[in-house]
Amino acid sequence: MTTCSINLQRCEENLLNWKSAVNHTAIVIETDDRGRITEVNDKFIEISGYSREESLDRTPALVDSGLHPAEFFTQLWETISQGQVWRGEIKNKRKDGSIYWVDTTITPILNAEGIPHKYIALQFDITSQKQMEEKLTFTQRRFQQLAANLPGVIYQFLMRPDGAVFFPYMSPGCQDFFEINAESIENNAQVLLNLIHPDDFPNFYRSVAISAETLEPWHWEGRVINPSGKVVWIEGHSRPEQQENGDILWDGLLIEITERKIAQEALRQSEQRLGLHFQQTPLAVIEWDLNFKVMDWNPAAEKMFGYSKSEALNHHAVELLVPESAREQVDQVFQALLQQTGGTRSTNENFTKSGEIIVCEWYNTPLIDPDGTAIGVASLVEDITERQHYQDALKAANEALEHRVEERTEQLQEAIAKLQGEMASRELAEEKYRSIFENAIMGIFQTTQEGEYISANPALARIYGYESTQELMQELHNVDHQLYVEPNRRDQFIEAIAQHGKIADFESQVYCKNGEIIWIAENARAVRDETGTLLYYEGTVEEITKRKHTEAALRRSEERLQEKALREALLNQLTEQIRQSLDLETILATTVQEIRELLQIELCYFSWYRPNGMPQEGVRSRLQQQDCLVLDWEAVKEARSPGVVSPLGFYAVSESWSHQCLQLQPIRIDAVASYPNRTVVEIFRAWGFKSVLCLPLQTHSGEVGVLSCVHCSKERAWNESEVVLMGSISDRLTIAIDQAQLYAQSRAAAQQARDQAQRLEQALYQLQETQTQLIQTEKMSSLGQMVAGIAHEINNPITFIHGNTIHASNYFKEILPLIELYQHYYPKPVPEICDLLEELDLAFILDDLPKALHSMKLGTERIRQIVLSLRNFSRLDESQKKPVDIHEGIDNTVLILQHRLSQIQVVKKYGKLPLIECYPGQLNQVFMNILANAIDALEEAEGLATKPGNGKFPTPNSPVLNFSPTISIHTELTPDELVVIRIKDNGPGLTETVKNRLFDPFFTTKPVGKGTGLGLSISYQIIVEKHQGILDCQSQPGWGAEFVIKIPIKTGTK
């Protein structure tokens, strides 16, 4: 009996152990023969969320998710009702509505008759496993979708140790890429490898071998020739991985780079052309950095300015090229270029290495990076000293001509390339050729040797004016006599092909159907059989009527340009003669003499308008004309042939002629006798003039002169080129006169230059001051960023500590009652616990620990406030104005300086202020500078008060007695909406001399190394210039200093 009891007890213990194990690992549900739940274990309650009371006498439908079809449970019930065990996976729903999966085994419990009288279901939670399977399925589906839609090919490439290669995987995109399906490549890797271009295969093989040997990532660019003959550039990237069996597996991606290769080649050619243009262009090309120091200098610049490239590099533009008088203008151009507001074109005087002054036209372009930031300037420079007008016209015409020729050449090359491509395609595929043949924009033909058409495309019919190719071939059956305008042109066509095998751009005039004559260009060849017998001629026809007209126009333009070049050479020669002197009399005398010799005329004279003549009634009555005469014109210089009357001195002209000249309108009279104004005719006849050309000009000072060319012996028709040439000479003469007048004013200009130099010196001083301020601002910005970063790094751990002190306090409060209960119910613990309690001093810990936690909380709260102040103060790099609370900025600054304020009392009297629109970081910098100076002053005053033997005895009213360092901060809003901030200290104060220089840059009263003298200067600029406010200091020695800041609520409301 005792043994049975022991065994029973062991069985019960084992049963309890099994039950505990099952409760921790599996769900157990017991139902009766009707499926009603009679028992559930703790695991079911834990996972399903239903309590035991909610579950009993319910069916398993309690956790049915509704996601299985009815047939699923019908089959399950049929299985177990027949006494068989059912196994499967079921998707259930918890009480909170969430889904979980269980691996289920349902075992029927049979009675003595073998009929199930209850069922036990054993279930294991496989939700995480199912979720992983779903994620895996989703990942595989997403990879397949990605591989199908990726603009490239994803692949795996395997190499065995014996060198055999395979493609275990190739994405479906290979069909579009290589015109081969993925299965073919996976079955035979050589199918793809055979497509690699023969010239690129050695590099491919070498790159794979290197990657296999080093296990470095594989990269290759090369061409493949698809089965259709299409050549495609591809780029491959993959990463190799050594397998355990020695195989090497590459996972990679192939992408098409054909367009990129074409673009790279075009870019290379463009860069090559640009480099040649840089070296060979007659214009000086100069590249500058942001400080306008030379970074590049082409040969034309060497020739123009006399400096070699090595001499010019890294030198400033002003230092090299700009005379003193033009430096202000050049500086303005520099600033406009850097700000992208102008300066792209300017005309300046420059000097060369030899000291010669030249006039240059500058075309400047700021170089902008993709972020929109200027990184430099490129300049094109043209010396227009010798040629200001017609050289530009000639250059523009040449550029237009070159552009048109290049454009037409490119069109012809494209047409030829297209034709050759079409002919090659015809040999490969007749069907493809037929589509091209029918839709080509160029005419395509085949003719017999006798001139009869075998075939023609619609474009050819359109060129010749026929409605269809059938009409063309029916009506045009002999091209020799019906088509060509020139009788023997067909024979020349055949002879040219016989000599060269083909012809290109064979140009001819032909008749259209309506009789119109057009120009065509033919490209043709002879087609022969294997024995060399001529079969037919085939080729293309392009109508080039417009091109021929354009070429004719270009030839005429070239002739005109050559004529202009000759005329400009003469003009340059005359200009050189004029500019050999700066004396006005010499310039005028040289001009009239050179013009007379140049144009081979009998008289050339120059007149000034002198508005002191009066209407001459006697002359008018003598000439019996209605047009009034004036004597306001004086001829001052002449060049004439012997026997021609001299016009020097004041002479009479008609009022209408004088008015036309004053309007700067040229007067051209080829035949004086036929001129409509009879007064002018009578006057010129009196002088013996037969033909007259008058070119008025106006100098920079406003004086009006007339350059007159006269022929007396016979009439002369002035051609257009002579009129244009005289206009150019008139312009050059105007410049020469201006230069002579400027030379006469040189002493005054020199004085102006000295004044300008003084202003530039002042500007340089201001620039240095601004530069220093920018450096200081950048330092403060960097400091702000560093402070913000440190504050951020401190904030995270201190927030963690601060938060945990609260939890620690709560935990202590929860544990304390437990300790008290232990002490109440176990007043006499074991000796070991007594010893430990005595050693730990539990009473002291219970009393001191809450205080320590409270101190930690206060300390962390203090650190968080300091961090917040640092983060707010560090907004020095904010470039946008925003409405802020001024008091917050002052409080943050005071908090940051708290370590220096331990012995100083800070008194704040804040008024009610609205939000102020300002630069918060810059205002924080102002508060910091003023408060730091106040602290320095108070520390100095405190030292004076405590320093023995300073030689002075304090008076009863002196602030030195009972000195209490104090800083007071007062804010208020004035009726005119100005915010006033007063920061006052009771330090030693300032003398009048120090006050007058207080805001000057680099002025400081501190010892060497203690201050830069920039703080108050920068603060003054921030308040006055940035915020349109006022910064003032009120102080006297011995009574402290008060800084008063006044800023408007919004910018512009000062």
Biggest sheet: strand arrangement = 23-22-21-26-25-24
The CATH class of the largest domain turns out to be Alpha Beta
CATH topology of the largest domain: Heat Shock Protein 90
Report the CATH superfamily of the largest domain: Histidine kinase-like ATPase, C-terminal domain
Please give the number of β-strands. 33
Gross morphology: flat
Strand content: 15-25%
Count of discrete alpha- or pi-helical segments spanning 4 or more residues = 33
Shape-level CATH architecture of the largest domain: 2-Layer Sandwich
Arithmetic mean pLDDT: 79
The Cα radius of gyration reads: 51 Å
Biggest sheet layout: 6 strands, antiparallel
**Domain count:** 7
Distance between the termini: 111 Å
Report low-confidence residues grouped into runs of 5 or more.
614-626, 946-961
Helix fraction by DSSP (H/I, runs of at least 4):
40-55%
Structural class: alpha+beta
